[in-house]
Amino acid sequence: MNIKSFKLSIFTGLIVMMFLPNSILGLHIIGGDVVYRCLGINTSTNPNQVRYEITFTMYRDSKSQGADFDNPANFGVYRGSGNKWQYVRTITNISVRNKKDIDINNDNPCIIVPANVGVQSGTYIFEISLPIIDDSYMISFQRCCRNNTVLNLVDPGGTGAAFTTEITPEAQRLCNNSPVFENFPPVVICVNRPINFNHSAKDVDGDSLVYEFCAPLTAGGTEGTNGGNAQSCNGVTPSPNRCPPPYSEVTFRTPGYTYDKPMGGDPVVYIDSKTGIIGGSPNILGQYVVGVCVKEYRNGVLISSLRRDFQFNVTTCEQAVHANIQASLKDGKDYTLNSCGNEIIHFKNLSTDIRYIKSYYWEFDIKGSPKTFTTRDASVTFPGLGTYTGTMILNRNIPGAQDCIDTANITVNIYPSIKTDFSFKYDTCISGPVSFKDLSNSGAGPVQKWNWNFGEGTSVQKDPAFEFELPGLKTVRLISEDVNSCKDTAVHTVNYFPVPSLIVVEPNTFTGCKPATITFNNLSKPIDDSYSLLWNLGDGQTSADFSPVHLYSESGVYSVRLKITSPLGCTTEKQWNNLIKVVDSPIAGFSYDPEEPNLLFNTVDFTDNSVGGIAWQWRFDTLGVSLFQNPSYTFRDTGTYLIEQIVLHSSGCTDTARTQIHILPYVNYLMPNAFTPNNDGLNDVFKPVGTFQGVSYYHLSVWNRWGERLFDTDDPSIGWNGQRNNTGEFAPPGVYAYILEYVNGLGEKKSDKGQCTLIR
To answer: How many domains are contained in the chain?
Structure first.
């Protein structure tokens, strides 16, 4: 497995935990151990009693989002030996103490610890008095579960932990104290690097200790995370009275891993049985659960055994420091600095990461004599031209930093100086190329390279000529280079304001129809707004614009003249004879009859009133066209129409006249002043007599003297028959009011009010 696979495994485990919100409560245990200290024997009881202080230390993954320490926690007390144990009692409600984050830095400044690794410890301490018996006592704590991402166990996320201590009959009688581990193993260790961790324990009684890898114990499981019994023996927090020892050992993922080869690989990681030093170089990336047992002997008799399990994270350790200096050339760890004429060199240290750099050491060979510095940056005065060597070493002679040393090898070349300069000349009045001459010199011999920058272009010639497109104060830069790649820069300003060698003007047209608007596009170069321009436009008018726009109101032929004066006072001018020709144009115009056409009188006669025309074109909106001088057109519908007359002159010029005409609806009616609804076929209804052709709205209503509406209609063909709202009830003879409303084709609202007499 490589580091990429390892990180993917961790990521996958985290994703799994995200989707198991109940079971995540157990995914946090990474180790623990239980020790005891004898407080004395009470001989006044029968049997005698021995009193102990029990300290249980648990370690949890603080970055897994798993459960916090159980607070309070319960501990089981049992008696027996081997595979037969009897429940004695439960120590309840023990609060966690001294919660703290473990410093996971192993004092090697080369290791950058991954951000997703964190360990927190917590302790539970209580006292207990036990009768001295011929059996052993076992005190235990059971809890599920471990990290899903552990590599060497089968189903680590469902594997719990049992942390125990056994107090043998000999330990009871002798008021023995258990060994205590002095250090917590490094959380992060580097793949393919030696561990060399001292995992020894201290025993206050001076007993002999023997160390070995052993299998961690497991207890509990995931039952209860989704509604089951969490205190069952397969639950997250097994009940001490129902779940006595012995506890099973964890199941290692065989054949690659076993309790005595917990990290696999070849060669394997080992523990020295006498010193407790864990050695070897792990060569497989991953997370591993490791168990260490310490057997305590007194006079050759085994009186106690201490068990601890913990989690190792084997990862690729990133090199935290990198030697780097500012240089002319870099090749791996070799840095070359070239100085041209300057014997004092200021070395700029760019080494990283500065947090892990404990010391700097510079050493230079100056004509056989060393010169050293211990600052981050260094300034060295060299005795003259030549080549010098040196080194810059990070973390030199720092204990524990042997893997974090990095070195930069330095070569310094002190070369002769180079001086760059140049001259230039040009005609200040007439535009043209500027001639540049290189005046550079070097103590190392002839100049080899030139790099010119004119702002508007570049050149690599020794003595180039360059013509600027635009006037102005031109900044010209020359960088010259000699055989040693030494460079120098010179900058001069060219005051470039000549007048154009050629005046170029392009009108938008040379022949225009009266009145003609002509734009004179000035294409002369080089000029800008700082130049003075005077145009003579040939009709007595002048302009100072850069590209003037001028209106010629009379026909004729016009000559144009332009004079240009530069900011330096140089002038140039040019005249274009007979440049612009303005020809006569017709004057369009027309009239029409009838002046207010409508749908009854809808044929319109158009009369040409233009002047100077030889041909005509008429456009009747989008309805049609005509080439007659005096056309007629019949409109079939009401509305507003755009009429255009285009008149052509013999010169080819045209003029256009436009107007809008309105075709109105035809409304012509009379309102009778009396009617006789007697069904004799004569004058039986009241309604307008006439036509309402083309109206968009029509409404007639009839009212009596009391303001009661007796009749209304939206149809011009329907009249009032003398009944009350067509109910069959006849209105009495008399005078009635009417209101007539309509909207014509122009959208104008019209109304008519009057009276009529009903006669019976």
So the answer is: 6
